[in-house]
Design goal:
The protein has 2 helices and 2 strands. It is an alpha+beta fold and 59 residues long. A two-stranded antiparallel sheet has the order 1-2. The chain is globular and about 30 Å long.
């Protein structure tokens, strides 16, 4: 819940406000590329942005 509060129910990619059932958690550095599941590597995203990003890393 700390990530939800920190990111204020807002997709961190497109800026869209999210309802409870729309919240998705995204690994900033994908788990498949060695990223952790710690709070500093997690952000809120909407379904569309999370699927579009997949396991890419944007520098």
């Amino acid at each position: 819940m700390r990530v939800v509060r920190r990111d204020n129910y807002t997709c961190q990619i497109c800026g869209r406000h999210l309802l409870d059932d729309e919240v998705e958690f995204d690994h900033i550095i994908p788990f498949s590329k060695g990223g952790s599941s710690e709070e500093h590597n997690i952000r809120l995203t909407c379904f569309k942005c999370n699927r579009k990003k997949s396991d890419q890393v944007k520098l």
